[in-house]
Amino acid sequence: MAARIKVSKELYIKAPPREAVYAQHQAYIGREGAELIEAVRHEARGEVPGVGPRYYAPLIYRRRSLDNGRTWARDGEPWVQSPATLVGPARRFTPQYYHDPGLGITLSMFLVYDVLLAQAGRRERFSDEGVDGDTRRMFYSLSRDGGRTWDEPRQMIHSGAEYDAVHWGPGLFYGKTGGGGDLVHFHKLKDGTLVSGMTVNLQDGKRFQCLLVRARWKRDLSGLDWEFSEYIAMRPDESSQGCCEAMPAVLDDGRIFMSLRCCGDRETKKFPSLKYWVISDDGGRTFSKSKPLTYENGNPVWSPSSFAGIIRSSRNGKFYWIGNILSEPTYTSQPRYPLCIAELVPEKGFLIRESVVVIDTRPPDCREERRRYTNFGFYEDRLSGEIVVTLPEQPRLDWNDFTSDCYRYRISLD
Fold this sequence. Notes:
- The chain has about 425 residues and is mainly beta.
- About 0% of the residues lie in helices and about 45% in strands.
- The chain has strands at about 5-15, 20-30, 35-50, 50-65, 75-80, 90, 95-100, 105-115, 135-145, 155, 165-170, 170-175, 180, 185-190, 195-200, 210-215, 225-230, 245-250, 255-260, 275-280, 290, 295, 310, 320-325, 340-345, 350, 355-360, 375-380, 385-390, 405-414.
- The mean pLDDT is about 95.
């Protein structure tokens, strides 16, 4: 029987005018207790000199709570952007956190990319022809005091003598091809290996491809050795954009399920947007053939090309899938409402239909048809057992105004 799910909603962070606020990548510090860190990103849209209108982050900062998210204080130096500073090297996405309570080490991952004036006229970063796709790389830093201080950033480089800062993974060459992830979640396997999803674009006609990144601690715990899985490519009749935003879940038997974001045939509507999934039985080095996410009766889960998260409840042991579920098919990345949660049976690749609950959706009086509920932060409250989801209602009024407050949803599982 599916658990009864209840949802509450509260204003989390008030947005400044013409900005959207995202709270993401929450991580508890320590094996127990109420200390929590998270990354906050302000998003805006402005005119980049010589390039055109672009999304940018006016403010990114880390903040810390000592009382389980009731109150917060900024932690460390903020990182700021303006449209005028978007041209040049080493722009970065929101940091993503993972704390290993056994080792007392906190890991911060972040995506770095370049935007050059010579790329004026190219499409935005969301396209595989985007302004930064061929310069994307992943970096990481470590902290041994709960995220208060960090060592110097180091690049993620696939293990092997032939790989370096330029040729940093199979098919990945800085300035020609790129990859990374800005919504990653790490999981720890029984042997201590850390795993997380990543997306690459090898400019080989396969559009976006996904992989699982495996990280092993060096013997002296000074850093991590990285290993990339095989790349997962979609057939042209499954997705017009390949796959991205891979989200893993580790099963009790060691197999690794991974959800894939895919896009339908936007031009001729020969096939709809769906979520696909793959599974690995060798620790995430190779994966099965992709299959569409369905309900237990085999019917498809209609879902736009949008982010989805997976979390396992420590209270009942069940997996939950969080994402946009529609009543009819779409062929694009819209609409991104309602946002739903449902029980996932990962070993069989289906959602339990009677467990689907709407977290939030566009209200009838909202004049903006393209309001979206997506790109959320999520974690389990270690004290209450609730699943916590944080995201902006984007936009509050319309996309010209852009202002989008961040809300916090608490989801209880009876």
